[in-house]
Structure formats: structure tokens, C-alpha cells
Design goal:
There is one protein chain. The protein is an alpha/beta fold. It has a single domain, classed as Hypothetical Protein Ychn, Chain: A (3-Layer(aba) Sandwich), CATH 3.40.1260.10. The chain is 35% helix and 23% strand. The chain has 4 helices and 5 strands. It has helices at residues 18-32, 57-65, 74-79, 97-106; strands at 6-12, 37-43, 69-73, 92-94, 110-113. The chain has a 5-stranded parallel sheet, sandwiched between helices. It starts with 5 loop residues before the first strand and ends with a strand. The model has no long low-confidence stretch (mean pLDDT 95).
């Protein structure tokens, strides 16, 4: 049995539009790396784009159907006053993007920032 590889895509920025690029990169990566586990981690004010009705619902749904994880930074959500129940269905929360990204990289995950 082979070890499953993980790719982390870090979407950071003040513009929620950064999510569009990160989701596109994740979907493209899933075609080239079909056996890899892919997780998009959104940090900073861009987490507002993960709120249901923020304009990215269809893009998020397409990405989540592709077995790609999308996670919001809990610290960023707190700063932006966003509650977990406001997020688009399927989006998860990590307490701290920085800690999550570091721990996953130490465990062998590849990292890309968009």
C-alpha cells in the first residue's frame, strides 16, 4: 500500500477573490495528482468569501465535489466576525491556518501559496 500524498494550497489575502484562483489551482492539481489529498486553507479577510451567499457557492460546491477539502482559518473568522454556521456547506475550520499549515508540512505535505 502506498502512502497518500497531501498538497496544501494556502489562499491568503484581503480580497475574497483570491478564493477563485485557489479553487481553480486545486481542481487543476487534482487532475494531475489524482491520488493526492488536496486541501485549500483560506486565511485573512479572504475568509469572507467562504460565507454562504458571498458569490463563491457554486465554485466551492464544484471543488468540494471533487474531493478537495476547503478549510477556513478560525483566527481569521474571529477577526472578521464570521461564525462557522455562516460558511458554505462542506467548508471546515482549522483553529489557526499557520499552525495547521506548519504541522501538515512537518508531516510531509507539499505547500503552495496563491
Amino acid at each position: 500500500m502506498s502512502e497518500q500524498h497531501m498538497l496544501l494550497i494556502h489562499a491568503f489575502g484581503s480580497d475574497p477573490g483570491v478564493i477563485t484562483g485557489a479553487l481553480r489551482v486545486a481542481r487543476n492539481a487534482s487532475h494531475g495528482l489524482p491520488e493526492a489529498r488536496i486541501r485549500v486553507v483560506v486565511q485573512g479577510p479572504a475568509v469572507a468569501g467562504l460565507v454562504s451567499g458571498a458569490g463563491f457557492d457554486e465554485d466551492l460546491a464544484d471543488t468540494l465535489r471533487g474531493m478537495i477539502d476547503v478549510a477556513a482559518c478560525g483566527n481569521s473568522m474571529e477577526r472578521e466576525r464570521i461564525e462557522q454556521d455562516q460558511l458554505t456547506e462542506g467548508v471546515t475550520v482549522v483553529p489557526s491556518a499557520v499552525i495547521h499549515l506548519a504541522e501538515q508540512q512537518w508531516a510531509g505535505a507539499a505547500y503552495v501559496r496563491v
